[in-house]
Amino acid sequence: MGRPPDSTRTRALKLVAELQALIADWDRPPTPREPRIIHPIAPVAGEPRLLSIPEAQAVLGISRTTLFRLLSDGDLAGMKIGRRTVIPSREIDAYIAAAMTPEETP
Fold first, then answer.
1. pLDDT, tens digit, for every residue of 26-44?
2. Per-residue DSSP letter, 31
3. Contacts by 84-91 with C-beta closer than 8 Å and gap 24+?
4. Lowest CB count within 10 Å: 11, 38, 90, 100, which one?
5. Number of Cβ within a 10 Å radius of residue 53
6. Which residue in 55, 31, 30 sits closest to 42, CA to CA?
């Protein structure tokens, strides 16, 4: 029995090197994942911008439940496109402006 052909030996050496690299990385802590940005939030050239539920949540910094509560209470106006609920960006802007302005009491 002789030595295996060079191509087989080369592949075996590459596999051993890959396994050694995996073993070396085994105890390393995982790197944090970057948040996924779905779409830019700013309107494009004055066109109306419709935000999805996750985008509106991200802009307002609230949970999905709170967002749907605002929609059902009428604090935010959303619209349905097929089965999808979207919220115009002007509605979000108006909600933020109203929240920042103290209401006058009689």
1. 676 666 665 555 555 555 5
2. P
3. 84/52, 85/53, 86/50, 86/51, 86/52, 87/50, 87/51, 87/53, 87/56, 88/48, 88/49, 88/50, 88/51, 89/41, 89/43, 89/48, 89/49, 89/50, 89/51, 90/48
4. 100
5. 16
6. 55
CB 104 within 8 A of CB 97: no
pLDDT tens digits, residue range 70-104? 999 999 999 999 999 999 988 988 888 888 866 65
Greater pLDDT, 37 or 54: 54
User: What domains appear along the chain, each with residue ranges and CATH number?
Assistant: 50-100 (1.10.10)
Is pTM, for the whole model, over 0.70? no
Contact 9, 2 (CB under 8 A): no
How many C-beta atoms surround the C-beta of residue 59 within 10 A? Answer: 17
Q: Which parts of 48-103 are beta strand (E)?
A: 50-51, 79-81, 84-88
Q: What is the CA radius of gyration of the chain?
A: 27
